[in-house]
Write a structure and sequence with these properties.
The chain has helices at 34-49, 76-83, 96-103, 136-162, 198-211, 231-237, 250-257, 272-285, 326-337, 358-372, 383-390, 404-411, 417-423, and strands at residues 13-17, 52-56, 87-89, 110-112, 167-170, 194-196, 218-222, 243-246, 288-291, 294-298, 307-311, 320-324, 341-345, 376-379, 399-400. It is an alpha/beta fold. Helix 1 links the parallel strand 1 (13-17) and strand 2 (52-56). The mean pLDDT is 95. It binds adenosine monophosphate.
Length: 424
Protein backbone atom coordinates (compact mmCIF):
# COMPACT_ATOMS: atom_id res chain seq x y z
CA UNK A 1 0.00 0.00 0.00
CA UNK A 2 1.28 3.47 -0.92
CA UNK A 3 1.68 6.04 1.83
CA UNK A 4 1.47 9.77 1.39
CA UNK A 5 4.79 10.20 3.20
CA UNK A 6 6.75 8.01 0.81
CA UNK A 7 4.93 9.05 -2.38
CA UNK A 8 6.65 11.68 -4.52
CA UNK A 9 4.09 14.02 -6.10
CA UNK A 10 6.66 15.91 -8.21
CA UNK A 11 5.16 16.67 -11.60
CA UNK A 12 1.94 14.83 -10.71
CA UNK A 13 -1.67 15.90 -10.62
CA UNK A 14 -3.33 14.41 -7.56
CA UNK A 15 -7.09 13.93 -7.29
CA UNK A 16 -7.66 14.65 -3.60
CA UNK A 17 -11.07 13.77 -2.15
CA UNK A 18 -11.53 16.04 0.85
CA UNK A 19 -14.50 16.77 3.10
CA UNK A 20 -15.15 20.48 2.59
CA UNK A 21 -18.80 20.07 3.50
CA UNK A 22 -18.56 23.12 5.76
CA UNK A 23 -21.47 24.91 7.45
CA UNK A 24 -22.52 28.16 5.69
CA UNK A 25 -24.69 30.93 7.17
CA UNK A 26 -27.49 32.76 5.32
CA UNK A 27 -24.88 35.06 3.70
CA UNK A 28 -22.99 31.98 2.46
CA UNK A 29 -20.12 32.63 4.86
CA UNK A 30 -18.27 29.68 6.37
CA UNK A 31 -19.08 29.47 10.10
CA UNK A 32 -16.58 26.69 10.93
CA UNK A 33 -13.53 25.95 8.77
CA UNK A 34 -12.26 22.94 10.79
CA UNK A 35 -12.77 20.59 7.85
CA UNK A 36 -10.76 22.78 5.47
CA UNK A 37 -7.95 23.01 8.03
CA UNK A 38 -8.07 19.24 8.45
CA UNK A 39 -7.06 18.69 4.81
CA UNK A 40 -4.23 21.23 4.74
CA UNK A 41 -1.34 18.88 5.68
CA UNK A 42 -2.18 16.62 2.73
CA UNK A 43 -2.64 19.45 0.24
CA UNK A 44 0.55 21.18 1.42
CA UNK A 45 2.61 17.99 1.10
CA UNK A 46 1.51 17.60 -2.54
CA UNK A 47 2.39 21.22 -3.31
CA UNK A 48 5.71 21.01 -1.46
CA UNK A 49 6.73 17.95 -3.50
CA UNK A 50 6.07 19.94 -6.68
CA UNK A 51 2.69 18.44 -7.56
CA UNK A 52 -0.72 20.00 -8.14
CA UNK A 53 -3.80 19.00 -6.15
CA UNK A 54 -7.16 18.70 -7.86
CA UNK A 55 -9.42 19.19 -4.87
CA UNK A 56 -12.82 17.48 -4.90
CA UNK A 57 -15.62 17.59 -2.33
CA UNK A 58 -19.36 17.63 -1.94
CA UNK A 59 -21.16 20.48 -0.20
CA UNK A 60 -24.58 19.86 1.34
CA UNK A 61 -27.27 17.82 -0.33
CA UNK A 62 -28.05 19.37 -3.73
CA UNK A 63 -31.41 18.31 -5.13
CA UNK A 64 -30.45 19.22 -8.67
CA UNK A 65 -27.40 19.95 -10.81
CA UNK A 66 -25.99 23.44 -10.19
CA UNK A 67 -27.86 24.19 -6.96
CA UNK A 68 -26.36 27.70 -6.70
CA UNK A 69 -26.63 27.90 -2.91
CA UNK A 70 -24.27 24.94 -2.64
CA UNK A 71 -21.53 26.05 -5.01
CA UNK A 72 -17.91 25.53 -4.02
CA UNK A 73 -17.42 29.21 -4.92
CA UNK A 74 -18.32 29.96 -1.28
CA UNK A 75 -15.51 27.70 -0.10
CA UNK A 76 -12.88 28.87 -2.62
CA UNK A 77 -11.64 32.10 -0.90
CA UNK A 78 -10.99 30.31 2.42
CA UNK A 79 -9.19 27.42 0.70
CA UNK A 80 -7.04 29.87 -1.22
CA UNK A 81 -6.26 31.88 1.92
CA UNK A 82 -5.32 28.84 4.03
CA UNK A 83 -3.37 27.10 1.28
CA UNK A 84 -1.52 30.26 0.24
CA UNK A 85 -1.39 29.38 -3.47
CA UNK A 86 -3.48 30.22 -6.50
CA UNK A 87 -6.64 28.06 -6.53
CA UNK A 88 -8.87 28.04 -9.61
CA UNK A 89 -12.53 27.01 -9.37
CA UNK A 90 -13.62 24.65 -12.14
CA UNK A 91 -17.15 25.28 -13.50
CA UNK A 92 -18.02 21.61 -12.92
CA UNK A 93 -16.31 18.49 -11.56
CA UNK A 94 -16.33 16.77 -14.97
CA UNK A 95 -16.76 17.89 -18.60
CA UNK A 96 -14.58 19.43 -21.28
CA UNK A 97 -13.85 22.76 -19.61
CA UNK A 98 -12.83 21.05 -16.39
CA UNK A 99 -10.63 18.55 -18.25
CA UNK A 100 -8.95 21.50 -20.01
CA UNK A 101 -8.33 23.30 -16.72
CA UNK A 102 -6.88 20.12 -15.17
CA UNK A 103 -4.64 19.55 -18.18
CA UNK A 104 -3.28 23.09 -18.07
CA UNK A 105 -2.94 23.18 -14.29
CA UNK A 106 0.50 24.56 -13.39
CA UNK A 107 2.75 22.89 -10.85
CA UNK A 108 2.37 24.52 -7.47
CA UNK A 109 -1.21 25.58 -8.20
CA UNK A 110 -4.48 23.93 -7.25
CA UNK A 111 -7.80 23.32 -8.95
CA UNK A 112 -11.00 23.17 -6.89
CA UNK A 113 -13.72 21.16 -8.58
CA UNK A 114 -17.36 22.25 -8.37
CA UNK A 115 -19.64 20.33 -5.96
CA UNK A 116 -19.40 16.61 -6.79
CA UNK A 117 -23.03 16.05 -5.82
CA UNK A 118 -24.26 18.42 -8.52
CA UNK A 119 -24.18 15.14 -10.45
CA UNK A 120 -26.42 12.37 -9.14
CA UNK A 121 -23.79 9.98 -10.54
CA UNK A 122 -21.51 10.78 -7.61
CA UNK A 123 -23.88 8.86 -5.33
CA UNK A 124 -25.01 6.48 -8.08
CA UNK A 125 -28.71 6.78 -7.27
CA UNK A 126 -31.51 7.77 -9.64
CA UNK A 127 -32.53 11.39 -9.10
CA UNK A 128 -36.10 12.69 -9.47
CA UNK A 129 -37.57 9.23 -9.99
CA UNK A 130 -41.35 9.48 -9.53
CA UNK A 131 -43.28 6.24 -9.87
CA UNK A 132 -46.35 7.32 -7.89
CA UNK A 133 -48.66 7.11 -10.91
CA UNK A 134 -47.61 3.55 -11.81
CA UNK A 135 -49.06 0.29 -10.56
CA UNK A 136 -46.98 -1.57 -7.99
CA UNK A 137 -45.33 -4.10 -10.28
CA UNK A 138 -44.48 -1.56 -13.02
CA UNK A 139 -43.13 0.82 -10.39
CA UNK A 140 -40.87 -1.95 -9.11
CA UNK A 141 -39.56 -2.71 -12.63
CA UNK A 142 -39.01 0.95 -13.48
CA UNK A 143 -37.17 1.52 -10.18
CA UNK A 144 -34.97 -1.52 -10.76
CA UNK A 145 -34.04 -0.35 -14.27
CA UNK A 146 -33.43 3.21 -13.07
CA UNK A 147 -31.07 1.93 -10.37
CA UNK A 148 -29.18 -0.19 -12.90
CA UNK A 149 -28.83 2.79 -15.26
CA UNK A 150 -27.68 4.99 -12.38
CA UNK A 151 -24.94 2.51 -11.51
CA UNK A 152 -23.79 2.39 -15.16
CA UNK A 153 -23.75 6.18 -15.32
CA UNK A 154 -21.80 6.27 -12.06
CA UNK A 155 -19.10 4.10 -13.65
CA UNK A 156 -18.73 6.52 -16.56
CA UNK A 157 -18.70 9.49 -14.21
CA UNK A 158 -15.99 7.83 -12.11
CA UNK A 159 -13.88 7.32 -15.24
CA UNK A 160 -14.22 11.01 -16.09
CA UNK A 161 -13.11 12.03 -12.60
CA UNK A 162 -10.14 9.65 -12.72
CA UNK A 163 -9.03 10.94 -16.13
CA UNK A 164 -8.23 14.32 -14.58
CA UNK A 165 -5.30 13.08 -12.48
CA UNK A 166 -2.24 10.81 -12.17
CA UNK A 167 -2.90 9.62 -8.62
CA UNK A 168 -5.66 9.47 -6.01
CA UNK A 169 -5.55 10.61 -2.40
CA UNK A 170 -8.50 9.80 -0.12
CA UNK A 171 -8.68 12.28 2.76
CA UNK A 172 -12.43 12.55 3.41
CA UNK A 173 -13.11 10.45 6.50
CA UNK A 174 -16.53 12.11 6.90
CA UNK A 175 -17.73 10.35 3.74
CA UNK A 176 -15.60 7.19 3.94
CA UNK A 177 -18.74 5.18 4.83
CA UNK A 178 -20.24 5.97 1.41
CA UNK A 179 -19.44 3.89 -1.68
CA UNK A 180 -19.55 6.94 -3.92
CA UNK A 181 -17.66 7.63 -7.16
CA UNK A 182 -15.09 9.94 -5.60
CA UNK A 183 -14.78 8.22 -2.20
CA UNK A 184 -14.33 4.59 -3.24
CA UNK A 185 -15.00 3.66 -6.89
CA UNK A 186 -12.32 5.94 -8.32
CA UNK A 187 -9.55 4.08 -6.47
CA UNK A 188 -9.58 1.14 -8.91
CA UNK A 189 -8.34 3.50 -11.64
CA UNK A 190 -5.14 4.01 -9.68
CA UNK A 191 -4.10 0.52 -8.54
CA UNK A 192 -0.52 1.60 -7.80
CA UNK A 193 -1.09 5.28 -7.14
CA UNK A 194 -3.78 5.44 -4.45
CA UNK A 195 -3.30 6.32 -0.81
CA UNK A 196 -4.81 7.86 2.30
CA UNK A 197 -4.14 11.49 3.10
CA UNK A 198 -2.88 12.53 6.55
CA UNK A 199 -6.33 13.05 8.05
CA UNK A 200 -7.52 9.63 6.90
CA UNK A 201 -4.32 8.07 8.24
CA UNK A 202 -4.97 9.58 11.67
CA UNK A 203 -8.62 8.50 11.69
CA UNK A 204 -7.95 4.98 10.45
CA UNK A 205 -5.12 4.37 12.88
CA UNK A 206 -7.23 5.67 15.83
CA UNK A 207 -10.07 3.32 14.94
CA UNK A 208 -7.62 0.43 14.53
CA UNK A 209 -6.10 1.20 17.93
CA UNK A 210 -9.43 0.54 19.62
CA UNK A 211 -10.86 -2.12 17.30
CA UNK A 212 -7.86 -4.34 16.58
CA UNK A 213 -5.74 -4.83 19.64
CA UNK A 214 -6.72 -2.41 22.42
CA UNK A 215 -4.64 -2.00 25.56
CA UNK A 216 -6.69 -3.23 28.52
CA UNK A 217 -8.81 -2.49 30.39
CA UNK A 218 -10.87 -1.10 27.51
CA UNK A 219 -13.89 1.01 28.47
CA UNK A 220 -16.60 2.35 26.17
CA UNK A 221 -18.93 5.08 27.36
CA UNK A 222 -22.14 5.14 25.35
CA UNK A 223 -24.49 8.05 25.90
CA UNK A 224 -27.00 9.92 23.78
CA UNK A 225 -30.74 9.71 23.64
CA UNK A 226 -31.84 6.35 22.26
CA UNK A 227 -30.95 2.67 22.52
CA UNK A 228 -32.34 2.08 19.02
CA UNK A 229 -29.71 4.26 17.31
CA UNK A 230 -26.85 2.77 19.33
CA UNK A 231 -27.77 -0.91 19.36
CA UNK A 232 -25.30 -2.00 16.65
CA UNK A 233 -22.45 -0.21 18.38
CA UNK A 234 -23.39 -1.60 21.79
CA UNK A 235 -23.60 -5.15 20.39
CA UNK A 236 -20.22 -4.82 18.69
CA UNK A 237 -18.64 -3.22 21.76
CA UNK A 238 -19.84 -6.10 23.91
CA UNK A 239 -17.45 -8.31 21.91
CA UNK A 240 -14.53 -5.97 22.53
CA UNK A 241 -14.62 -4.10 25.82
CA UNK A 242 -13.97 -4.92 29.47
CA UNK A 243 -16.33 -2.19 30.72
CA UNK A 244 -19.39 -0.73 29.02
CA UNK A 245 -20.86 2.38 30.60
CA UNK A 246 -24.39 3.20 29.49
CA UNK A 247 -25.53 6.75 30.18
CA UNK A 248 -27.69 9.51 28.70
CA UNK A 249 -31.34 9.04 27.78
CA UNK A 250 -30.79 5.27 27.34
CA UNK A 251 -30.47 5.00 31.13
CA UNK A 252 -34.23 5.19 31.63
CA UNK A 253 -35.11 2.47 29.13
CA UNK A 254 -32.79 0.18 31.11
CA UNK A 255 -34.15 1.38 34.47
CA UNK A 256 -37.74 0.76 33.38
CA UNK A 257 -36.87 -2.65 31.93
CA UNK A 258 -35.43 -3.57 35.33
CA UNK A 259 -38.65 -2.52 37.08
CA UNK A 260 -37.75 1.06 38.06
CA UNK A 261 -40.12 4.07 38.20
CA UNK A 262 -38.81 6.62 35.71
CA UNK A 263 -41.48 9.38 35.83
CA UNK A 264 -41.48 11.44 32.62
CA UNK A 265 -37.98 10.44 31.53
CA UNK A 266 -37.25 9.70 27.90
CA UNK A 267 -37.86 5.98 27.26
CA UNK A 268 -38.28 3.61 24.32
CA UNK A 269 -41.05 1.33 25.52
CA UNK A 270 -40.58 -1.02 22.55
CA UNK A 271 -36.92 -1.56 23.51
CA UNK A 272 -37.39 -2.85 27.07
CA UNK A 273 -36.75 -6.46 26.05
CA UNK A 274 -33.72 -5.34 24.06
CA UNK A 275 -32.32 -3.63 27.16
CA UNK A 276 -32.66 -6.91 29.09
CA UNK A 277 -31.00 -8.81 26.23
CA UNK A 278 -28.06 -6.37 26.34
CA UNK A 279 -27.71 -6.98 30.09
CA UNK A 280 -27.72 -10.77 29.47
CA UNK A 281 -25.21 -10.52 26.60
CA UNK A 282 -22.87 -8.46 28.77
CA UNK A 283 -23.03 -11.18 31.45
CA UNK A 284 -22.42 -13.90 28.88
CA UNK A 285 -19.41 -12.06 27.43
CA UNK A 286 -17.96 -11.23 30.84
CA UNK A 287 -18.32 -7.49 30.25
CA UNK A 288 -18.72 -5.23 33.27
CA UNK A 289 -21.88 -3.29 32.33
CA UNK A 290 -22.29 -0.09 34.31
CA UNK A 291 -25.62 1.69 34.50
CA UNK A 292 -26.37 4.93 36.34
CA UNK A 293 -27.64 4.66 39.94
CA UNK A 294 -28.77 8.23 40.47
CA UNK A 295 -30.06 10.99 38.25
CA UNK A 296 -30.47 14.75 38.25
CA UNK A 297 -34.20 15.01 37.69
CA UNK A 298 -36.02 18.11 36.50
CA UNK A 299 -39.68 19.16 36.69
CA UNK A 300 -39.60 20.28 33.05
CA UNK A 301 -37.29 20.10 30.04
CA UNK A 302 -35.48 23.41 30.50
CA UNK A 303 -32.22 24.76 31.87
CA UNK A 304 -33.98 26.59 34.73
CA UNK A 305 -36.23 23.75 35.81
CA UNK A 306 -36.37 22.80 39.50
CA UNK A 307 -34.05 19.86 40.13
CA UNK A 308 -33.41 17.08 42.62
CA UNK A 309 -31.06 14.09 42.78
CA UNK A 310 -32.96 10.80 43.02
CA UNK A 311 -32.40 7.13 42.30
CA UNK A 312 -32.95 6.24 38.62
CA UNK A 313 -35.56 3.78 39.92
CA UNK A 314 -37.55 6.29 41.95
CA UNK A 315 -38.11 9.29 39.74
CA UNK A 316 -41.33 11.05 40.87
CA UNK A 317 -44.26 11.32 38.45
CA UNK A 318 -43.96 14.36 36.15
CA UNK A 319 -40.18 14.63 36.80
CA UNK A 320 -37.61 13.49 34.24
CA UNK A 321 -34.01 12.33 34.42
CA UNK A 322 -31.82 14.88 32.61
CA UNK A 323 -28.30 13.87 33.68
CA UNK A 324 -26.48 11.38 35.88
CA UNK A 325 -26.03 12.20 39.57
CA UNK A 326 -22.88 12.34 41.76
CA UNK A 327 -22.92 8.66 42.77
CA UNK A 328 -22.91 7.54 39.12
CA UNK A 329 -20.35 10.20 38.23
CA UNK A 330 -17.93 8.74 40.76
CA UNK A 331 -18.64 5.14 39.80
CA UNK A 332 -18.04 5.91 36.11
CA UNK A 333 -14.98 8.11 36.72
CA UNK A 334 -13.28 5.40 38.82
CA UNK A 335 -13.60 2.87 35.99
CA UNK A 336 -12.56 5.38 33.32
CA UNK A 337 -9.48 6.50 35.24
CA UNK A 338 -8.31 2.88 35.58
CA UNK A 339 -8.67 2.23 31.81
CA UNK A 340 -5.97 2.01 29.17
CA UNK A 341 -8.25 2.36 26.12
CA UNK A 342 -11.34 4.58 26.11
CA UNK A 343 -14.06 5.24 23.55
CA UNK A 344 -16.62 7.94 24.29
CA UNK A 345 -19.73 8.31 22.17
CA UNK A 346 -22.67 10.39 23.40
CA UNK A 347 -23.28 12.70 26.38
CA UNK A 348 -24.50 11.48 29.79
CA UNK A 349 -27.32 13.99 29.81
CA UNK A 350 -28.81 17.06 28.15
CA UNK A 351 -25.40 18.74 28.06
CA UNK A 352 -26.70 21.58 25.86
CA UNK A 353 -28.29 22.98 29.08
CA UNK A 354 -25.47 24.07 31.42
CA UNK A 355 -27.36 22.81 34.46
CA UNK A 356 -27.33 19.27 33.03
CA UNK A 357 -23.78 19.18 31.65
CA UNK A 358 -22.06 18.19 34.89
CA UNK A 359 -22.16 14.43 34.25
CA UNK A 360 -20.72 14.77 30.75
CA UNK A 361 -18.04 17.10 32.11
CA UNK A 362 -17.08 14.60 34.79
CA UNK A 363 -16.75 11.85 32.17
CA UNK A 364 -14.59 14.20 30.06
CA UNK A 365 -12.41 15.04 33.08
CA UNK A 366 -11.90 11.37 33.92
CA UNK A 367 -10.91 10.69 30.29
CA UNK A 368 -8.43 13.57 30.38
CA UNK A 369 -6.88 12.16 33.57
CA UNK A 370 -6.67 8.64 32.14
CA UNK A 371 -5.07 10.05 28.97
CA UNK A 372 -2.47 11.88 31.08
CA UNK A 373 -1.69 8.50 32.65
CA UNK A 374 -1.04 6.91 29.28
CA UNK A 375 -4.46 5.70 28.13
CA UNK A 376 -5.51 6.02 24.48
CA UNK A 377 -8.80 7.94 24.27
CA UNK A 378 -10.96 8.33 21.18
CA UNK A 379 -13.91 10.71 21.21
CA UNK A 380 -16.32 10.62 18.35
CA UNK A 381 -19.65 10.32 16.67
CA UNK A 382 -21.57 13.55 16.97
CA UNK A 383 -22.47 15.03 20.32
CA UNK A 384 -19.53 13.85 22.40
CA UNK A 385 -17.33 15.91 20.06
CA UNK A 386 -19.52 18.96 20.78
CA UNK A 387 -19.17 18.10 24.50
CA UNK A 388 -15.40 17.86 24.49
CA UNK A 389 -15.18 21.13 22.57
CA UNK A 390 -17.66 22.84 24.92
CA UNK A 391 -15.48 21.90 27.89
CA UNK A 392 -12.25 22.88 26.07
CA UNK A 393 -10.63 19.43 26.40
CA UNK A 394 -10.10 18.59 22.71
CA UNK A 395 -6.32 18.86 23.08
CA UNK A 396 -6.21 16.82 26.29
CA UNK A 397 -7.55 13.56 24.80
CA UNK A 398 -5.75 11.29 22.32
CA UNK A 399 -7.99 11.81 19.29
CA UNK A 400 -11.23 13.61 18.43
CA UNK A 401 -12.71 12.08 15.29
CA UNK A 402 -13.93 14.33 12.47
CA UNK A 403 -16.32 11.74 11.07
CA UNK A 404 -19.74 11.42 12.69
CA UNK A 405 -21.53 8.72 10.70
CA UNK A 406 -18.28 7.23 9.40
CA UNK A 407 -16.89 6.73 12.91
CA UNK A 408 -20.16 5.22 14.11
CA UNK A 409 -20.13 2.69 11.27
CA UNK A 410 -16.48 1.88 11.95
CA UNK A 411 -17.18 1.15 15.62
CA UNK A 412 -20.23 -0.87 14.64
CA UNK A 413 -17.61 -3.10 13.02
CA UNK A 414 -18.58 -2.30 9.41
CA UNK A 415 -16.02 -2.13 6.62
CA UNK A 416 -15.97 1.42 5.26
CA UNK A 417 -15.88 1.52 1.43
CA UNK A 418 -13.52 4.53 1.43
CA UNK A 419 -11.01 2.61 3.55
CA UNK A 420 -11.40 -0.74 1.78
CA UNK A 421 -10.88 0.87 -1.65
CA UNK A 422 -7.40 2.03 -0.67
CA UNK A 423 -6.39 -1.08 1.25
CA UNK A 424 -7.52 -3.59 -1.38
P1 LIG B 1 -27.43 11.04 20.21
O1 LIG B 1 -27.56 11.91 19.00
O2 LIG B 1 -28.29 9.83 20.22
O3 LIG B 1 -25.99 10.76 20.58
O4 LIG B 1 -28.04 11.90 21.41
C1 LIG B 1 -27.50 13.11 21.84
C2 LIG B 1 -28.60 13.88 22.50
O5 LIG B 1 -29.10 13.12 23.58
C3 LIG B 1 -28.16 15.20 23.06
O6 LIG B 1 -28.78 16.23 22.33
C4 LIG B 1 -28.67 15.16 24.49
O7 LIG B 1 -29.31 16.36 24.88
C5 LIG B 1 -29.67 14.02 24.48
N1 LIG B 1 -29.85 13.42 25.80
C6 LIG B 1 -28.90 12.90 26.60
N2 LIG B 1 -29.45 12.53 27.77
C7 LIG B 1 -30.76 12.82 27.73
C8 LIG B 1 -31.84 12.69 28.65
N3 LIG B 1 -31.64 12.19 29.86
N4 LIG B 1 -33.06 13.11 28.27
C9 LIG B 1 -33.22 13.64 27.04
N5 LIG B 1 -32.25 13.79 26.12
C10 LIG B 1 -31.03 13.40 26.46
Amino acid sequence: MQTIDSYNFAGKKAFVRVDFNVPLNENFEITDDTRIRGALPTLKKILKDGGSPIIASHLGKPKKNQDTGLSMKYVLPRVQELLGVNVTLAPDCVGEKTAELAKNLKLGEALLLENLRFHAEEEGKPRDLNVDALDESTAKDVTKTAKKLAKAAQKEFTKMLASLADCYVMDAFGTAHRAHASTALIAEHFPKDKMFGYLMNAEVSSVEKIMANPARPFTAIMGGSKVSTKIDIITNMLQKVDNLIIAGGMTYTFAKALGGKIGNSICENDKLDLALEIIELAKKNGVNLLLADDTKAADNFSNDANTQFVSVNEIPDSWEGMDIGPVSEKKFADVIKASKTILWNGPTGVFEFDNFAHGSRSVAEAIVEATKNGAFSLIGGGDSVACINKFGFADAVSYVSTGGGALLEAIEGKVLPGIAAIKE
